[in-house]
């Protein structure tokens, strides 16, 4: 009697690396218009974090392959658009904290 064995590939750190990549991409988009001064130099805040997203994508490519990094990048784009859509939802006029937050985020994303 022959039993067919199926090997399921388990990725130990892929979920963590994908979440890290998505989080860094969204944070870098939020801090794109915030200027940071380091000594005499001034640079957009998202530059430092955005560079790290390429490093994480390269690590995912080297360890898990091109197919997995493609799925992570497409998921990042989808979740970034979901985040922008949530920020555009109508809000209550009486809730001033949310209004202030939305004003700040709209300044970051849509100016």
Structure description:
This protein has one domain. Helix content is 65%, strand content 7%. The protein has helices at 14-30, 46-64, 66-87, 96-109, and strands at residues 35-38, 41-44.
Any chance you could write out the topology, listing elements then pairs?
Blueprint: H1 14-30, E1 35-38, E2 41-44, H2 46-64, H3 66-87, H4 96-109
Antiparallel strand pairs: 1-2
Helix pairs in contact: 1-2, 1-3, 2-3
Strand order in the largest sheet: 1-2
List segments where confidence is low: pLDDT < 50 over at least 5 consecutive residues: none
Biggest sheet descriptor: 2 strands, antiparallel
State the domain count: 1
Q: Based on DSSP secondary structure assignment, what is the total number of beta strands?
A: 2
How much β-strand is present in the residues? 5-15%
In short:
The chain has 111 residues and is mainly alpha-helical. It has helices spanning 14-30, 46-64, 66-87, 96-109; strands spanning 35-38, 41-44. The chain contains four helices and two strands, in the order αββααα.
